[in-house]
Amino acid sequence: MSEPILSVRDVAVRFGGIVALDGISFDMPVRKIVGLIGPNGAGKTTLFNCLSRLYVPSDGDILFEGKSILTRPAHRIAEIGIGRTFQNLALFQNLTVLDNVRIGGHCRTRSDYVSDALNLPWSRRNEKQIDESARSIIDYLDLRGVAQRRVGDLPFGTQKRVELARALATNPKLLLLDEPACGLNHEEIEELGERIRHIRDDRNLTVLLVEHHMSLVMSVSDQVVALNFGRKIAEGTPAEVQRSPDVIAAYLGTEKQ
Amino acid sequence: MSVQTENLETAAEHPALAADMVTKPFGRDRTIGIAIGVILFVAAIALPFVTKSFFVFQVTMVLIYAIAILGLNLLTGFNGQFSLGHAAFYAIGAYTAAILMDKAEISYVWTLPVAGIVCFAFGFVFGLPALRLEGIYLALATFALSVATPQILKLSPLEHWTGGVQGIVIMKPDAPFGLPLNQDQWLYFFTLIVTVLLFWLAHNLLKSRTGRAMMAIRDNPIASRSMGINNSIYKALTFGLSASYTGIAGALGAIVVQFVAPDSFTVILSIALLVGLVVGGVGWIPGAFFGGLFVLFVPNIAEQFSKGLSGAFYGIILMGLMFLMPAGVAGFIAMLRRKVLRHEG
């Protein structure tokens, strides 16, 4: 097996006296879809926020392509190829779909106030590049019909797709999806599973998926990591994790206690 | 809601239809936009030749306030940072121009870029600690700035430069190249050129990568960071840029009024600019012109109703406007457009 794209090593997060993550370790192989599951409060989103540097782990390290990301500030995570979506939509509500996706291209381009204000040639070239890549992603995710609409006016399911488009516009190698199925209806969830696999295949991505919707996780993931109370309780193929007594206990409770 | 969803889906399935839906109103908007542009251009050129000098002066002041309000709009409307301190930047711009003309005898034209740079520096430096403050807390910190400024301008150690309480009197410049214009007409055209230039720059900026980053920070600072936007540097630079616009307005104001004094730049001016911003429309570039009109003319109109109760009438006019146009002129125009579109289609 080749070197993992992401290694989480003994990551611990404490908020005051509360231990949100307690020494989590796992590796993500390249071009695999890894599902991260666990009951509410298990620490899934906390781990996600460590990966995008919104939280600082109290212990441990996170390696992306062999290099620690903990020395990077949050705004320099997108440029190394980690893109994400948020659990409760974090779109730029007053902007159009197109502008939201264009902002995804921010980390792939350079510009400054002066050249942008003067609309200098390189600024225009830049803009053209951002625009082309944004439009191709918009077409890819069937958002063309709403490209000029204000994103806050769109239905929830469409907004989720816009968020995915925006994450793809950062041109990630590793895509972090925080509960992409949350709030979607049954049909949309099926579509989503297919879409995640397609995206991985078309764009050669590795995907880390936090999800509550079990049938989705189990059907799309190559590998599943289960957390409970900040600890890893199981890791393996979907079938293995589903059989794990600890996972069953975490979700359904045990008889004796 | 369900109807809307259905429409969207059909639009997504039929890109041609969707493109048509999108381009049609915009295509016509463009024609209307060009027509309005031509009318405004002709009116702007003709104005100083068909109206009295004092009115020309007033319109010049409207343009100057529009620049100052645009500066505030860049910060508040497009970047989400509040300021009740813009009178301070206006004052710094005005004094920079006045001192340069009075002490160094520099031509008025060159005082504008200098005022812009000086105010950019002040704004940027003030913007750094402001990074830690948000919303009403930032409003308070900037409020302190405009409370302090007039008193600092009166300090005796600075009196040699600022003229203390007396302020500084400036000579009105003549039209260059022997143009057949009187001083008011020339200053109007000079201000108009600067205004067009500054609005063009702001327009370019806001539709670029930089402008989108500014708005992304306004709408969702956590998501903007995850998209690779360095929030701190953009916020501080936008503070500097905003101060720079307002400072250039201040410099123009000093040249046009021919006089600067500390008490012209109290916190009342900050509030007037904020009122102009809200009346014109937060986050809409042309709104600054409507804001400028309001700031200049409404206090005069209120005074015509009653000298003693002018403040009360000002308040009534403001409340009436906000009742009729809760989202300012911007919201009002957007509503009219929607009505016309719905009526037609």
UniProtKB/TrEMBL annotation, chain A:
<protein>
    <submittedName>
        <fullName>ABC transporter ATP-binding protein</fullName>
    </submittedName>
</protein>
<dbReference type="InterPro" id="IPR027417">
    <property type="entry name" value="P-loop_NTPase"/>
</dbReference>
<dbReference type="GO" id="GO:0016887">
    <property type="term" value="F:ATP hydrolysis activity"/>
</dbReference>
<feature type="domain" description="ABC transporter">
    <location>
        <begin position="6"/>
        <end position="254"/>
    </location>
</feature>
<keyword id="KW-0813">Transport</keyword>
<dbReference type="InterPro" id="IPR003439">
    <property type="entry name" value="ABC_transporter-like_ATP-bd"/>
</dbReference>
<dbReference type="Pfam" id="PF12399">
    <property type="entry name" value="BCA_ABC_TP_C"/>
</dbReference>
<keyword id="KW-0547">Nucleotide-binding</keyword>
<keyword id="KW-0067">ATP-binding</keyword>
<dbReference type="Pfam" id="PF00005">
    <property type="entry name" value="ABC_tran"/>
</dbReference>
<dbReference type="GO" id="GO:0005886">
    <property type="term" value="C:plasma membrane"/>
</dbReference>
<dbReference type="InterPro" id="IPR003593">
    <property type="entry name" value="AAA+_ATPase"/>
</dbReference>
<dbReference type="InterPro" id="IPR051120">
    <property type="entry name" value="ABC_AA/LPS_Transport"/>
</dbReference>
<dbReference type="GO" id="GO:0005524">
    <property type="term" value="F:ATP binding"/>
</dbReference>
<dbReference type="InterPro" id="IPR032823">
    <property type="entry name" value="BCA_ABC_TP_C"/>
</dbReference>
Automatic annotation (TrEMBL), chain B:
<dbReference type="GO" id="GO:0015658">
    <property type="term" value="F:branched-chain amino acid transmembrane transporter activity"/>
</dbReference>
<keyword id="KW-0812">Transmembrane</keyword>
<keyword id="KW-0472">Membrane</keyword>
<feature type="transmembrane region" description="Helical">
    <location>
        <begin position="267"/>
        <end position="299"/>
    </location>
</feature>
<dbReference type="InterPro" id="IPR001851">
    <property type="entry name" value="ABC_transp_permease"/>
</dbReference>
<feature type="transmembrane region" description="Helical">
    <location>
        <begin position="82"/>
        <end position="101"/>
    </location>
</feature>
<feature type="transmembrane region" description="Helical">
    <location>
        <begin position="311"/>
        <end position="336"/>
    </location>
</feature>
<feature type="transmembrane region" description="Helical">
    <location>
        <begin position="186"/>
        <end position="206"/>
    </location>
</feature>
<feature type="transmembrane region" description="Helical">
    <location>
        <begin position="107"/>
        <end position="128"/>
    </location>
</feature>
<feature type="transmembrane region" description="Helical">
    <location>
        <begin position="55"/>
        <end position="75"/>
    </location>
</feature>
<feature type="transmembrane region" description="Helical">
    <location>
        <begin position="135"/>
        <end position="153"/>
    </location>
</feature>
<protein>
    <submittedName>
        <fullName>Branched-chain amino acid ABC transporter permease</fullName>
    </submittedName>
</protein>
<keyword id="KW-1003">Cell membrane</keyword>
<dbReference type="GO" id="GO:0005886">
    <property type="term" value="C:plasma membrane"/>
</dbReference>
<dbReference type="InterPro" id="IPR043428">
    <property type="entry name" value="LivM-like"/>
</dbReference>
<dbReference type="Pfam" id="PF02653">
    <property type="entry name" value="BPD_transp_2"/>
</dbReference>
<feature type="transmembrane region" description="Helical">
    <location>
        <begin position="31"/>
        <end position="49"/>
    </location>
</feature>
<keyword id="KW-1133">Transmembrane helix</keyword>
<feature type="transmembrane region" description="Helical">
    <location>
        <begin position="236"/>
        <end position="261"/>
    </location>
</feature>
